[in-house]
Amino acid sequence: MTDKIKKPYCMAPFMALHVFEDGHAHPCDSFTSSYGSVKLKDYFKSQEMYEVRKELLDGRLPPQCNYCARAEAMTGNSIRLAYNEKFERCKDLHDVRHDLETFNLRYLYLSASNICNLKCLPCHYSSLGREKELNKLKIVDSAQIMKVVSEDELDALIELIQGQKEVEVNLMGGEAFYDKINEVFIKKLVEKNVAKDIRLIIITNLTHVKAELLDYIKDNFSDFKIIGSVDGIGATDEYIRYGTIWDQKERGVDLILEKGITLLTNTTLSFLSAHRFHEIFNWATKKGVEHIIQSTAINPVILNPNRIPKELRDQAREDLTSAVAAYTGKISSLTEISINACHTIYDHPEQNNYLEVFEYLRKHDNLRGTDFTVTFPELKPYAK
Fold first, then answer.
1. What pTM, to 2 d.p., does this model score?
2. Out of 97, 152, 224, 336, which residue is the most buried by the measure of CB atoms under 10 Å away?
């Protein structure tokens, strides 16, 4: 079956499920539905998913997958490629059937709420606080409603998990350690006696890590990892991920590592973070973080990293090359992918359309009382 994994193809519609806070479901969070929201109970047998699977089986990438196509063009990376690589690498996945009638749940992503304590610049709708800010700035016009997945939906998910082979469950946000519903789901999984067969991953901003919950998960799940969002070091992260207190975040990182829990860091490569990625690399490797992974700021498109001025990208290439050369440890394959993604950005032709980015940042600065030229003085010559 592995000869199927070639362009254009994606494994996600055959083995993955992303459930959102209002109970609708897609194969992944990059999927752009042509039909609108589909509820969990109707997901796999929906007309849209039938058409998507058929397109893939016929050797065509459906239009719902354009986000990944754009990400691949920008960085050589995408969620699609990650799923396909997992399928190739993991023998346990080789029994996943590729047909129109069968769904083999192997990966579950749950965005249980839009409750979050931060207002991150690369974020639009997964944080209610950020959504309210964007409405105040008149950048978007949306309903601004708190959304939390129902306990009935959680019970339906557990029924879906039961009877499957070992499933990887990813808890996302909002902020998974900040809202209450994720903890409710974790305890339901334990009480229903399915936790022992689950590999649990929590995606977090690292500002509300709870020692007691870490211990509870370690004691009850077959495997446990944390993916922590880090878009810069110190003031850089505090600016991009507004509301972050860096010292508090570092305490969360230290607690996770002290408990022997595997920690991966994820950087959203954006106009503000990509040219400082070498700082993240140096910090993470010094901390003992084994894997540094990345995503790309495509929405909002205004923070696209390909807008970074050429001189700054040239300097960033030198800084990252030097940082990697100075590191004496072994670089994991996931970190290598992130490094290569940065170099793809650094080598991208200059776009010269960064002035509108500065206007976007000034709007935020006026509301927040911040100043991007103080945090990023290297941008000041271009911002006149």
1. 0.89
2. 224
